[in-house]
Amino acid sequence: MSAVEEAKRTAAKVAVEKHYPKDARWVGIGSGSTIVYVVEAITNLGVDTSNTKYIPTGYQSKQLIVNAGLMAVEYDALPLGTVLDVAFDGADEVDEDLNCIKGGGACLFQEKIVALQAKEFICVAGELRLI
Description:
This protein is α/β, with parallel strands linked by helices. 34% of the residues lie in helices and 18% in strands. It has helices at 3-19, 35-44, 59-67, 108-116, and strands at 26-29, 53-56, 71-72, 86-90, 93-94, 100-101, 121-124. The protein is globular, with a radius of gyration of 14 Å. The model has no long low-confidence stretch (mean pLDDT 89).
């Protein structure tokens, strides 16, 4: 595994260990390469996820959720007024003041909606993303 991928995996593991609520009901899952490791970290936590619904921001993240045996729910299917317990997403670059640059891909709008709907937004980035 490359140093970049190892940094992403480590950042995701730490982020999930520190910020994933033990009784989570609604969890936003962003898009991009770091999210692979976020989903992996969630499945390795050893918590009961049977009552948790995961809101993907794109096709890739939905496939990751489903393939991990987790329950994916489209944002449009959320009950009115639902607040997500937490949302995880990655950053393309992070500066020394922790300002993040997100990509301009097709998922960006959905990522912003999901992040705003969450009590807590966790941006996962390893130190190799620093610019």
